[in-house]
């Protein structure tokens, strides 16, 4: 079928559905909502059999849903309505949830239901993590079933009224900041965390801090530090610790509230965002290897062992890796190399693996070209260390999505294991970059030169199953997000116990030595960075306009986008 995606943004769920529908041989085109005239022109040009809206914040025009079957993916169970469904579910601590695919009509979320699927909302998870995990799994299952039913013909969707409808109608209005507000002197830590997690990526929780208004993004419990409610107690890895009525929480990111007529603002690591406003508080580091028997301290990088297997887990907001993130992860990786293991698992968390360099931190830098260069060379140093590890097997475990340099970081490992629901974007083109992270070595080595060119030039999301078919990943794990870490750990244990593991390590070293003789890794790096250096230093390069638009969540400038796609 020909399916037109109508989206407010081509987000993670839209990309996953796009990739999976292409795997099923459907022809899919994406249209970003906004200009109704442009939408009608796209419909006339493409001539879809079906319009599917995986993520849509605005209403479908009546003349469109009257002429085409338009299916809306709503992140709530049957009968649920409103724009803040998942936000409210997380803030209220709901344990079971669902996704509904319904037909667009005049009243929002009130059309007949084509399919639905239920899902758990595990406690302690943030909204965006759940949206890319359990909710996305349910959304894909329901959407694919709805598409199948539509394609087969004859299916009659269930109206949300009448004798056949058994679900209560629950309208959940937009969750305003007044209802998200935190009372630091009265709210217990668990209530604070639910509010922070319900707004972690967007819109954040509006709050006053150090005489200014900020949106707080993300939250993690602190087991030991205590202080006057609302006070800042410490910093760690770019985050700030703030006291609650009965404990404390770590807040990784802040975004300053935009003043009328002032410049647009964007999320940054909390310490970076506060800058000179940050009072003198201690930097309280968490041990890389947590002590047994103690409450786990929040940290964005941690290491543990199970017999001959080491696990180096990292989790950075949005998957973005700043210069500091890369350098600290490199230090942790070198620590892991000093441990007596034969298998090292890199990643293994349930959300993003990595999306490469940190565009927001770069955008906030005094010298954008200098920070871009520092960031790309820092991640290159990390990738080089993985590529040249020859005394053990390295497994990249992708529980969530990866893009650009994050994909290439994974490809530096000996094996890449990927959760079934993960989406890979192994390209740089849409940000106007040539790319580094030794991709000109790793990607063709994995998939061949022709496939590497196709992946980087077409710049489309790739499903886990498609990545496995072309050799981009070695193993796809069909499990729930919460089960990915334990499943990967079990498989890593089996790998380490294999009688052939030492033979594989020896063969790996021989292959790396042969590759180095044929062409040194330094040559790949120098060639890639020569192009990147020009793109960073040229103020007119598309990268700068595209980066600025990306961090501010604005549409990509037409001229820059055309240059990146090769259209002039």
From TrEMBL:
Record protein name field: Two-component system hydrogenase maturation factor HypX/HoxX
Origin: domain of life: Bacteria
Lineage: Bacteria, Bacillati, Actinomycetota, Actinomycetes, Kitasatosporales
Domain Formyl transferase N-terminal, first and last residues per copy: 38-132
SUPFAM superfamilies reported in the protein's UniProt record: ClpP/crotonase, FMT C-terminal domain-like, Formyltransferase
Species for this entry: Kitasatospora paracochleata
InterPro entries for the chain: ClpP/crotonase-like_dom_sf, Enoyl-CoA_hydra/iso, Formyl_trans_C, Formyl_transf_N, Formyl_transf_N_sf, Formyl_transferase-like_C_sf, HoxX-like, NiFe-hyd_mat_HypX/HoxX
All residue ranges annotated as the Formyl transferase C-terminal domain in the record: 175-256
